[in-house]
Amino acid sequence: MMNDKRHFLDAFFNPRSVVVVGATETLSFGHVPTKNILSHPGVEKYLVNVKGGRVMGADVLKSVSELPEGVDLAIVMVPSGAVPGVVKECAEKGIRHVIIESAGFSETGSEGARLEKEIVEVAKANGMRVIGPNCVGVVNTSNMFTTADVDVAALVKGGVALVAQSGVFGTALVDRACSEGLGLSKVVTLGNKCDVDEVDVVEYLADDEETKVIGLYVEGVKHGRGRKMIEVFRAASARKPVIVLKSGRTEAGSKAVRSHTGSLAGSDRVFDAAVRQSGVIRVESIDELFYTTMVLASQPLPADGDVAILTNSGSLGAMMCDELESLGVKLAALSPETMDGLKKAAPPWASCRNPVDVGPAIIESALPAVELLGRDPNVGLIIMIFAIPGIVSSPRYFGADITPFFETLGETVSSAGKPAVALGFGDERIIKVAEKGFGKTRIPVLRNLTLTARAVAALYKYKKIKEAKKR
């Protein structure tokens, strides 16, 4: 059993014993969680299926009633009509933490809502905590424990925690994070939130040493939890960035949310005001959520100073200026010493003001340029924009391996101790080479100009939030 002094959610992420109710080896609902649990070396495992027998080489009990007392966590994947009975059996066996992955509850109508209400009543009467229903549960990369439909071998450890109301979407978030190299600490999918909600999870993650940034996808806030949400989110944002994406902003979106997880989206203006009071950063799209979490998780907050742009495309530099100004982010006024140094290091036709445009001489001029920008006291953050033609690396033309260039550039920028982001535009092969080269110094390589600007603005915004909390 878990230590009672721990937060109750710790039993979901670090259970010592787990039972999978509805375990199966057929390629259907429940197969992947069953396999992931059985393959985990750090937990005591039990399987339950009314058919009994063996699943994936393990013995299967026919009922929860056959379990020993006090298993830490139950994962329930049976038809919705059978779930209340399973939860009652769990209560009788002293199981106090349950993840219900089954669907068919309040998101489907009155009968499903009745079943969900019955689950809540049983849980409350027996001191149980429930995640779900209609979810895929949790991921914990510190011990590689997961109840979700994810490939454990593909998980990338890191400092970002993701909280999603949707199960399938939560799985897709994990897959995308892994494919883009976004390191995760923990993931929670909440489903219908019959009990545990994002307020509980953020409270837990605020104290989690492995989590540096919290990203949430929310469809609605439970009735009566608004004030508590503001309190918890405010406390959490004082310690680490909290980034929220909310759907249901429109009438059509609100209807879709209700049919998806049974949530009431509520007034978007009220929600927006609440998160602003809390010091939470709100984003408008899933791509912005990814970009913003990536930047905030990998970069330090800017000290004094504004943004400097280094680019080999004057057009992209000008567009970045427009985006930053529209977001209230200032361009740095470069010091005379920096401008003199740039004039010596760059070709005579290069622009040595901010943005610094070195054109086709980026390979030769970028290193001395970022070194000068890194030393400039007026510069708080550096954006590197590169649009290097694909012919540079194409074997039919130059065939150059520019990985060492990006590695050295990353080391030079990082040595200044200032946050930096890179924007790649054009040939995808070049962008992937940049990702590899910048990977050692954890400089994010982004692909969307507008969202890069918004992520930089979020970094400055969180700096102001932290400063305001100290007053």
CATH class of the largest domain: Alpha Beta
Lateral strand order in the biggest sheet: 9-8-11-10-12-13-14
Rg from C-alpha positions?
Answer: 25 Å
CATH architecture annotation name of the largest domain: 3-Layer(aba) Sandwich
Helix content bin: 40-55%
Overall structural class, as computed from helix and strand content, comes to alpha/beta
Explain what you see.
This protein is an alpha/beta fold and 471 residues long. It folds into three domains: 10-131, Rossmann fold (3-Layer(aba) Sandwich); 138-297, Rossmann fold (3-Layer(aba) Sandwich); 300-470, Rossmann fold (3-Layer(aba) Sandwich). Helices cover 41% and strands 17% of the residues. It has 16 helices and 19 strands. The chain has helices spanning 10-13, 31-39, 83-92, 110-125, 167-179, 198-206, 226-237, 251-261, 268-278, 286-298, 314-326, 336-345, 362-375, 403-415, 428-439, 449-470, and strands at 17-21, 44-48, 54-55, 58-59, 73-76, 97-100, 129-131, 138-140, 145-146, 157-164, 184-189, 213-218, 242-246, 281-283, 306-311, 356-357, 379-386, 420-424, 445-446. The strands form four sheets. Strands 9-8-11-10-12-13-14 form a seven-stranded mixed β-sheet, sandwiched between helices. Strand 18, helix 15 (428-439) and strand 19 form a beta-alpha-beta unit. Helix 6 (198-206) runs parallel beside helix 7 (226-237), helix 11 (314-326) packs parallel to helix 16 (449-470) and helix 13 runs parallel beside helix 14. The longest helix has 22 residues, at 449-470. It is elongated and about 80 Å long. The relative contact order is 0.08. The model is unreliable at 257-265 (pLDDT under 50).
